[in-house]
Each structure stands twice: as C-alpha cells, then as structure tokens.
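Reminder to self: tokens first, then the designed residues, so the page reads top to bottom the way the pipeline ran.
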C-alpha cells in the first residue's frame, strides 16, 4: 500500500496575514491548480472587509466534532451560614484561599464563623471526563464525605471521587452538594 505524502506548505506571502518583508515571487507552482477554492482565493484577495475570517475555506466540521458534552454544574450549600458556592470548574475552598490558582480554576472563600476551615482547606476538581474529585490540602480539621450517616475522611494527597448528591464537612461546616438541573 502506497503512502500519500503530505502536501507542501503554502509559500510565504500566500495569505494576507503572512509576515513578508518583500513581495512574494511568483513561482512555477503558481501556474499549477491551487487546492484553495476560487471563492476562497477571491475572498483572500479582497480581504476581510465584510467581517469574515480571512482564511475561511468553507470547511465545516460535522456536528460530532463541534458538539460538546453538556457541562455539569454543582452547588455547595451550607444551611447554617446560608452560603452557596457554584462549582462550575475546579475550585479551591478555604477560609482565605490563595488567589494564585491555575488558569481555568477559581478560589472560593468558605464562610466560617468558628474558624475551623483552613486558609487553603480543600479543592473540588472536575476532570476531562466530567468526574468530580475532592482533595484535602492538609487542613487541620479535615475534609469528610458523609453518606448514609458514615463519615469518610479525605486524606491529604489522596483525591477521592465525589458523586452528587452528598454531604461534605469542611472543618465543622456542613455543605450539601447537589447537581444543578
């Protein structure tokens, strides 16, 4: 079976936004038929005065490539303080959490009148598959998942998978974790 070679890269100056110090010379390749459609070529020549993307080549991905899985959003609610925290991306929780979090994550302050929540107490993360995880950051008073009346401690450095609905104890603050419908 013969392999098909990759087509050569277009010569510099082919597109209007190419960085070129001098005009591109016309090569013998220019006399050959171009893989770019004539409507694209005329569009590139006239620029983007109509607000379209300059190098649009009329290729449209099928919906299976462009359709994204629905994003899940979770709610943490504390009845005692009335605080509600929206978990729509990976979230660092604490009494005074560091605002220096990675791009795509956020920090949320836990209202804690008893001061049993550590500054950077725990994090709830959502992985690429949409699975929810919780990890304790070495807090003094711990992080627990409560199911059927049983507390399971989340240990430092040992993320645990988390399913909603659940009850979380962060320090001595109890939060109900639910999925937003």
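Designed residues (181 positions):
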């Amino acid at each position: 079976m013969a392999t098909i070679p990759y087509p050569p890269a277009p010569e510099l100056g082919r597109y209007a936004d190419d960085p070129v110090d001098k005009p591109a010379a016309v090569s013998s390749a220019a006399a050959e038929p171009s893989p770019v459609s004539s409507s694209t070529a005329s569009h590139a020549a006239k620029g983007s005065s109509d607000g379209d993307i300059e190098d649009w080549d009329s290729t449209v991905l099928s919906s299976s490539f462009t359709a994204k899985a629905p994003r899940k959003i979770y709610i943490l609610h504390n009845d005692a303080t009335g605080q509600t925290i929206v978990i729509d991306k990976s979230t660092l929780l604490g009494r005074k959490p560091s605002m220096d979090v990675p791009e795509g994550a956020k920090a949320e302050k836990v209202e804690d009148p008893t001061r049993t929540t550590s500054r950077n107490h725990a994090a709830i993360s959502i992985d690429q598959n949409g699975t929810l995880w919780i990890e304790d950051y070495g807090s003094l008073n711990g992080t627990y998942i409560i199911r059927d009346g049983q507390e399971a401690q989340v240990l430092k450095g040992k993320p645990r998978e988390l399913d909603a609905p659940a009850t979380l104890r962060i320090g001595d603050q109890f939060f109900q974790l639910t999925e937003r419908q």
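The chain has a mean pLDDT of 76.
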